[in-house]
């Protein structure tokens, strides 16, 4: 019996990374996780082992450390690809601490690329973001939509990272790469054993909603209701994290099936539909039966008014489709929050 192909997942104990580890296992891959746990918890690895019913290979380390990365590749023989998540990701914090974001997000990518080159590892799937589009002139955005000046240092790190990867691919590198431009991942695994687990106050909407519903947060603040949208609140393309995770596997399989070198592609990963913040709040109230305590605050620096994806390219080339609804994502997020509260109380 042949051994499963090994994929290095940087930031694999994080929100999207951990769900991708499950999607990889479902498609017959073996994930090797590296995560410094700066924005995640080691308990996630234990939860992954419960879901997968087998041990998970995990290294607690910073992937900016190129010496350690080389040792890891030599120890874990036959790694055939890398899915690179490891990055700081809070838009607001990046505005306040730009150097922290440039140093961490760019240095980690440079270390990964240099090690992949040295070890001749051919496949890279990169965690990018729809923030590379800035505030687009036309909606929905396609992969051909011009990238604008980033609205935040976080967004700029993703833009610069894409350029770095493309330059490396176009050199004499063995690397073929896909950058997945995420829209807004929400929800949790159907098991309820893993989900979005922010350390401290959440920066994202849905965990703030679920924590407010659970009584952990006194009140949810909606940042601005004077945007040019149907109800005045920002519009985003909210995608179930398990759909997003499966897109990484499809991207990996696409790269495996291509013989040519100098292959670099970008794909939008969203649902193709936008929802306002208040729509998400009302949908959560409907699926949970809970009235949320929320207030309208001022606009948040770095936020764009509205963005949602055209996902035709991913549908056609990757044979990937988002299949889970907003209601399902919010139901799964609430299920995860309740299980979390039960465990904490126990």
Distance between the termini: 42 Å
Q: How many β-strands, per DSSP?
A: 13
Helix content: 40-55%
**How large is the radius of gyration?**
19 Å
Biggest β-sheet description: 7 strands, parallel
> Would you list the SSEs in sequence order as H and E?
EHEHEHEHHEHEEHEEEHEEHEHH
Number of helices: 11
Q: Which range does the strand content fall in?
A: 15-25%
Q: What is the molecular shape? A: globular
Assign the CATH architecture of the domain at 6-186 and 238-270: 3-Layer(aba) Sandwich
Structure commentary:
- The protein has helices at 15-26, 43-52, 66-75, 91-96, 98-119, 153-169, 205-213, 241-256, 277-288, 312-318, 326-345, and strands at residues 6-10, 30-35, 57-60, 79-84, 123-129, 176-182, 184-186, 220-223, 235-236, 238-240, 264-269, 275-276, 294-297.
- With 346 residues, the chain is α/β, with parallel strands linked by helices.
- It has a domain at 6-186 and 238-270: 3-Layer(aba) Sandwich (Rossmann fold), CATH 3.40.50.720.
- It has a 7-stranded parallel sheet with strand order 3-2-1-4-5-6-11, with helices on both faces. It has a two-stranded parallel ribbon with strand order 7-10.
- Helix 1 packs parallel to helix 2, helix 1 packs across helix 8 (241-256) and helix 7 packs across helix 11.
- The protein starts with 5 loop residues before the first strand and ends with a helix.
């Amino acid at each position: 019996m042949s051994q499963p192909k090994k994929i290095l997942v940087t930031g694999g104990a994080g929100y999207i990374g951990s769900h991708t580890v499950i999607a990889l296992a479902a498609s017959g891959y073996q994930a090797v996780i590296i995560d410094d746990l700066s924005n995640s918890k080691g308990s996630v690895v234990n939860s992954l082992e419960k879901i997968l019913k087998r041990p998970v290979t995990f290294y607690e380390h910073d992937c900016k450390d190129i010496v350690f990365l080389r040792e890891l590749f030599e120890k874990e023989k036959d790694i055939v690809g890398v899915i690179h998540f490891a990055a700081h990701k809070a838009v607001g914090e990046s505005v306040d601490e730009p150097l922290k974001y440039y140093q961490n997000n760019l240095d980690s990518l440079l270390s990964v690329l240099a090690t992949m080159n040295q070890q001749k590892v051919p496949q890279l799937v990169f965690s990018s973001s729809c923030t590379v589009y800035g505030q687009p002139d036309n909606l929905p955005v396609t992969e051909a939509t011009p990238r604008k000046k980033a609205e935040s240092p976080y967004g700029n790190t993703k833009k610069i990272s894409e350029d770095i990867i493309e330059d490396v691919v176009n050199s004499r590198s063995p690397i073929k790469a896909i950058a997945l431009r995420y829209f807004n991942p929400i929800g949790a695994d159907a098991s309820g054993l893993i989900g979005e687990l922010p350390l401290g106050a959440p920066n994202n909407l849905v965990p703030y909603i679920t924590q407010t519903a659970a009584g952990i947060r006194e009140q949810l603040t909606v940042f601005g209701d004077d945007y040019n949208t149907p109800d005045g609140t920002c519009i985003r393309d909210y995608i179930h994290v398990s759909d997003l995770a499966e897109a990484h596997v499809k991207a990996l399989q696409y790269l495996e099936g291509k013989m040519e070198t100098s292959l670099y592609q970008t794909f939008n990963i969203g649902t193709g539909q936008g929802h306002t913040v208040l729509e998400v709040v009302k949908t959560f109230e409907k699926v949970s039966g809970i009235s949320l305590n929320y207030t309208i605050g001022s606009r948040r620096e770095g936020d764009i008014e509205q963005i949602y994806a055209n996902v035709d390219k991913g549908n056609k080339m990757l044979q990937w489709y988002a299949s889970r609804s907003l209601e399902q994502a919010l139901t799964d997020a609430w299920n995860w929050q309740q299980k979390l509260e039960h465990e904490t109380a126990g």
